[in-house]
Amino acid sequence: MSYGAPQANGGGWTLGLDDARPLFREAIEAGITTFDTANAYGGGSSEEITGKLLGELAKRDEVVIATKVHFAMGPGPNGVGLSRGAIMTQFDNSLRRLGTDYVDLYQIHRHDPRTPIEETMQALHDLVRAGKVRS
What we know:
The chain is mainly α. The chain has helices spanning 17-29, 45-57, 84-98, 117-129, and strands at residues 34-36, 64-69, 105-108. A 3-stranded parallel β-sheet has the order 1-2-3, with helices on one face. The longest helix has 15 residues, at 84-98. The model has no long low-confidence stretch (mean pLDDT 95).
């Protein structure tokens, strides 16, 4: 949540790509292998920065990438929430921003009272079975 376009979170407190690079480098050199973000952090720019810097500084199979879904990322029913359509749409967008073909951990950011939990869980299960999510 600390990385992203500074203007995206309304306060300018996030670090952009160039300012984040030395922190990612130091983390990787110190042995940190797990990186957590979310589609909504910085309007998607946190995923973009995380993906770009991990692509530059680490081998994909040597890091764990986690991201989340729930908050509004666009208009319409697939732009927010935990319906099957929203999860599938937002997951594909996250993969594109992260520059990878899978994530190691995909999390729901909060409960969606408008969507039956069975629908949410089936969508997550299908992503795991398709090999797009490792756990």
